[in-house]
Design goal:
Shape: globular
Structural class: mainly alpha
CATH topology of the largest domain: Farnesyl Diphosphate Synthase
CATH class of the largest domain: Mainly Alpha
Number of domains: 2
Strand content: under 5%
Oligomer: single chain
Distance between the termini: 14 Å
CATH superfamily of the largest domain: Farnesyl Diphosphate Synthase
Radius of gyration: 21 Å
Order of helices and strands: HHHHHEEHHHHHHHHHHHHH
Largest sheet: 2 strands, antiparallel
Strand order of the largest sheet: 1-2
Length: 354
Amino acid sequence: MRETLADWRPAVDEAIADLVPREINADYLESLFGSPTYEYDPDGIQRALSTPLWELLDRGGKRWRAILFLVFIEGFGEDPAEYLPYACIPEILHNGTIIVDDVEDGATIRRGEPALHHVYGRDIALNVGNAMYFLPLKVITRDPADLPADRKLATYEMLMDELNRTHLGQGMDICWHNEREVRVGTEEYLEMCACKTGCLGRIVARLAAIITGQPPEVEQAVATYAELTAVAFQIGDDILDVEHSLGRAGEFGKEFGNDIREGKKTLMVIHAIDESDPDRASRLQDILEADENTDDEILEALEILADAGSVEYARERALALAADARVAIADLEFDAETTRKLEEFTEFVIERDE
């Protein structure tokens, strides 16, 4: 799977650059947004949109959503190269959500460098993030694959449905972050993940199915696969935050003990509070509810998670979700190579080290 990611990433970045060039000029603005009523300011739009976007993209990220989309396209018997513009849709949406998410969470670090709102200001960061919710729709408007009208409409409707659910998940996460004393159950946490992270995965799969004209049962099967895999990815992301902070993983690109500092209700936290003795559970809750923590307090919280077996528990839940994802597509008639890639991907999202 790592080879697939490495092979396709340059092509994905080129496709993104076709939609949002690194250098903005008046001709581009007119071609994408229409003639100005008066006059565009390409330099201002460059500084407020393209430069921040490409700074974030150039920091890293594996583009796995775009590349998973291309794997599905190939599995459905189409040439992935012909659908590269559509691969931009989930990738740009994802990066837009993390820019806004960083502002909402008050995050300091993203991909090893200051979060964009610390570099360009909250106003520019929010505008860039919000623009990235809408720019991908231009791909459908341009319609490079010349889709039938019913598929274009189905694509728009799907995106609106999934993006609305994404904001439900983010709303739950924000509420839990702001009201740190709130107790969250495992099922609520998984639902938050299914909305916030899972819906972006579902967009990947449903987009590939819709634009290639797959029947509803196939669209549902790949959507289930992608949602389950994305939830496993989120749990794996939470595990990486803990293991990085405990010195067990490579450079992760986030602040030390980031999730604990933010008081996040992760699957590991929920498990540790349920499984620890009352004093340690109360202590973990106190650390999570505090507005600020020392590094020693962060380490104390991490040790409570480790002692409760919560990291292992979360990994087992993620592995179970990955197994369910593989079951979801077991009856689809993919070729052996596509099946291998999709199965490997469910393992990659959990076992990656960065």
